[in-house]
Amino acid sequence: MKKQITRVSSLLLFLLIGVVLPCSSLKAQDLLVTIQRDTLNCKVGKMEGDFYPIKFKWDDELMEGMIHKDSVLFYKRNMFRSISDNRLRPWYPTAYLSLNLGGGHQFGPLRVGLTENYTPKKGTSSDRGALYAGADLVVYLSALTGYGIKYHYRRMLGGDIQEHYVGPMISLRFWDNQRKNHWVIQGSVGYGRMAHNNAMIKRGTNDPEPIELTANVLAGDIGVGYNLRLSSNLSALFKLSSTIGYTDFVRISDYHRLNPSGTDPAPDISGYCHNMNSINLTVGLAVH
After folding, report:
1. In this predicted structure, what is the pLDDT of residue 6?
2. The domain containing residue 152 runs over which residues?
3. Measured between alpha carbons, how far is 161 from 272 in angstroms, rounded to an integer?
4. The domain spanning residue 184 has which CATH number?
5. Model pLDDT for residues 200-236, shown as the tens digit of each residue
6. Degrees to nearest 5, angle at CA 113 with 109 and 129
């Protein structure tokens, strides 16, 4: 299969055009086998009448010709890496973009407002539900291992709390026996950002007022999923993932609005510090 021409003389008899012409460079590479069991690394075009147009390399020169359909035993598209390279193309997808959407649940401290005594109010279980949206872009260097970048967005309390994560990623695939579907395990360490809009605070004798809190954190994300192939370039993805991130510092991003003169000390916001720890379940589509 890997040799370009096994018997040159018999194959050339099938060419309608005896004088071959130089052609433009090609990237697509097909395998053509004649009824004489000759093989050729070439580009097979759409049939014209009873003939297939073909383009191939001959003595490092790009040529074109025609071959009758009765002389073709079979052909298979995209078998070789290039028209000048008889190595087989990888059977596995090498580039992978997935988009997923789902929900999540936040763990750890969560503050959603103030009590009647103006102390931070703890969130309930219903406050911890989150909307999750994410995207992964991976380039695979082998059937198993790939490297890329991931991003996800989470929101809670109707959008008052928003979290963003972006970071490099390593991805491992484990294929089934048919090389069709696969499990995927992903790990990432990157940058996390949290924003809490409309966080109510109490300053002195003033009435409670809303502020915006932000925090940056080094975070991590791990996930396991199953990729179900729908077509040669599209698959469905079901994934369970977890995000881990502990904030060391939370700041009031709009404190100048509350204290334009800069004379009043900043209020105590330590009770609002919460983490990015969560578990997420998503479904999505992957293009490869």
Report:
1. 41
2. 95-287
3. 11
4. 2.40.160.20
5. 776 666 777 777 888 889 999 999 999 999 998 899 9
6. 55
